[in-house]
Amino acid sequence: MIARTLYDRLWESHTVHVEEDGTTLLYIDRHLVHEVTSPQAFEGMKLARRKPWRIAANLAVADHNVPTNDRSRGIADPVSRLQVDTLDANCAEYGIVEFRMNDPRQGIVHVIGPEQGATLPGMTVVCGDSHTSTHGAFACLAFGIGTSEVEHVLSTQCLLAKKMKNMLVRLEGPLARGVTAKDAALAVIGRIGIAGGTGCTIEYAGGTVRALTMEGRMTLCNMSIEAGARAGLMAVDEVTIAYLKGRPFAPRGELWDRAVAHWRTLKSDPGAKFDHEVTIDARSIKPQVTWGTSPEMVVTVDERVPDPDREKDAIRRESMERALTYMGLRPNTPMTNIRIDKVFIGSCTNSRIEDLRAAAAIVRGRRLASNVRLAMVVPGSGLVKAQAEHEGLDRIFKDAGFEWREPGCSMCLGMNADRLDPGERCASTSNRNFEGRQGTGGRTHLVSPEMAAAAAIAGHFVDVRQWR
Amino acid sequence: MERFTVLTGLVAPLDRANVDTDQIIPKQFLKSIKRTGFGPNLFDAWRYLDEGRPDKPDTDRPLNSDFVLNQPRYRGASILLARENFGCGSSREHAPWALAEYGFRALVAPSYADIFFNNCCKNGLLPVALAEGEVDRLFHEVAAFPGFRLTIDLEKQTVATPDGGEVGRFDIDPFRKYALLNGLDDIGLTLRHADKIRAFEERRRSEQPWLFG
Ligand code: SF4
Q: In chain B, whose CA is at the least distance from the CA of A56?
């Protein structure tokens, strides 16, 4: 038998039908639904007089539009409110399980899926959201889809897709103190570029990945889309299995044992061939900070803002110049001289309990710098929030001057009221530093939770490796 | 879905690499629960001088005259010429909805992000990928000749000038091409295999029952 990659195996085990040209009807095990990309899909389905194919495959949550401060008054913005109400109504109509805004289990869709055990190894997982790649940390084939595809999955439990290429990103060696999965993700993007994974599914492997917790693995898979790859995935090991045990949607008893026996087989065969392979020495990775308007515009914290004059390619040079103008930065400025106005710790990249613990460890006993106007911590879910409060992390943040908020996407994209004002500069643990992403005219620097916390205290970027 | 066969139209150039879907349609407009109404907010932050809001009419907003689509010579364009990795980032289908509603029926660029490419095809908006050199040449031609038009023939998979000079050929999966040429709805096509889906599902349920708990 020919050696197959994990992606090959997941693909083959979900193939329902193949057209002559290879277009494949792929069966979908889990469909996650949120309020922004689903209303038109439900409407389309209704207009076509169709019904959801398998209701239990769907799990819904409102996350993008929800307020992160006092929720007792509901959603103030009527347009946001209508979108959330529409999700509630659609789920109620079809009997789809939904964690509503005031449910303690509510949170960011990519945080709650794994947290509930709704994401299980060997599944195909889709959601109308590009960061669905997060779930690949559980050896799932998980990827983002558009609204037409949301309707397709609702109506048929399948998707039409063409097989991608296999790409292997191997990370070897331990991460240095103060260097996290987020830094590894940014380093990978810095290396292969934001289109480096286009047309591919990335499998992450190597000792570094095995040594990461599930939280760290999710952070790494989450940012696959920022490298252009629709999906990122990792083999199952004991860490995966231990994480899932006892989760509400995970199997129990005899079924659990059967499932685990199957899950342990979910890895690439030895000698499986990849179309592209990249090896990164993880020991050399340093804390990363983006300087521009795309995640590949990244340097290490001890470097300087790059100089476009040294770029030979004309299109790249122009992008750099445009980015520097937008970001209000001068070439050759040391990254540690850049002062910030706001700090955002949250998003599906970095809002899980470990992220909050790591940030709290930096903040403990200190105060926000006086130039920092707002620093907010937005837990990824109600359960993460409760756990953090149980550990007293909320006190540490509040004592330092941070705001402690309710779970949701928040200032990752600012669809709710949380956003940057024009010209404001933010240290953010989210995943996209696109123009206007966190608010029109806002300037985003992507960093790890530790780096964001340290920047909040210092008022500018600092190298957490030297933090005491 | 609207059929796509042959399109001849005015070309507008957007000379930036890695244009992400946050730029194509900013987040504040994603709050709509409708499929329409996005055209006036295509490239909103570049196109207007003030900040757009979903509850504010766009008609009186100050236009950014530097932005290419605001130049009178590109009014009525139906083909957008773009650079590499167009449509990266968020999966929002509002991006192709906005492009289509604005009047674009096809895109020409060296490469596209995967999810965006798919989303375009589902909306009868044809994303044509040409070699980088060919795209570069087109940028020069568009700048040099006001009123520059192209003809895109899906059946023949060619891009040509209206006088018949071939600019380049493009690839497209036969299945996608068939759906686009005939304006077929993917869901309808898939449901022809409903029995196969059911059989697959039953087998899966017996082999991995924990997935159906
Ligand atoms: S946290 Fe940000 S990236 Fe993640 S799903 Fe929400 S908006 Fe998207």
A: B212
Nearest to A227 by CA among B176, B128, B85: B85
User: Which atom of ligand 1 lies closest to the CA of A351?
Assistant: 1
Pairing of strands B6-14, B149-153: antiparallel
Task: List all residues 6 or more positions away from A150 whose beta carbon is below 8 Å from its beta carbon.
Answer: A31, A33, A37, A38, A41, A128
Q: Grade residue B159 by pLDDT with cuts at 50, 70 and 90.
A: very high
Q: What is the CA radius of gyration of chain A?
A: 21
Identify which of B84, B175, B213 has the shortest CB distance to residue A251: B213
CA nearest to B172 within chain A: A21
Beta bridge partners of A351: none
Instruction: Quickly count helices (H) and strands (E) in chain A.
Output: 15, 19
**For position A18, what pLDDT does the model report?**
98
Quote the percentage of chain A above a pLDDT of 70.
100
Contact A16 B90 (CB under 8 A): no
Q: Is the separation of the CB atoms in A263 and A236 below 8 Å?
A: yes
Taking Cα atoms as reference points, which of B3, B97, B186 lies closest to residue A26?
A: B186
- Do the Cβ atoms of A440 and B51 come within 8 Å? yes
Inform me whether the pLDDT recorded for B213 exceeds 80: no
Q: Nearest 5°: phi and psi at B9?
A: -160, 165
Q: Which phi and psi (to 5°) does residue A86 adopt? A: -65, -40
> Beta partners for A141?
A124
What length does chain A have?
Answer: 468
Of B18, B30, B83, nearest to A194 by CB-CB distance is B18
- CB-based contact A126:A143 (threshold 8 Å): yes
Indicate the pTM of the whole model. Answer: 0.97
SS3 B48: strand
Residues of chain A contacting B51 with CB distance shorter than 8 Å: 422, 440
- β-strand pairing of B149-153 with B158-160: antiparallel
Q: What is the DSSP letter of B62?
A: P
Residue A289 CB contacts under 8 Å (≥ 6 apart), including other chains:
A298, A299, A300, A301, A335, A445, A446, A447, A451, A461
What is the best residue among A33, A36, A110 to mutate for testing ligand 1's pocket, by most ligand atoms within 8 Å of CB? A110
Contact B107, B86 (CB under 8 A): yes
- DSSP secondary structure letters along A26-47: EE-SEEEE-TTTSHHHHHHHHH
Q: Which of B145, B149, B154, B148 is nearest to B125 (CA)?
A: B154
Pairwise CA distance, residues A14 & A30, whole Å: 12
Provide mean pLDDT across the span A131-147: 98
Contact A210, A237 (CB under 8 A): yes
8 Å CB contact of B16 and A155: no
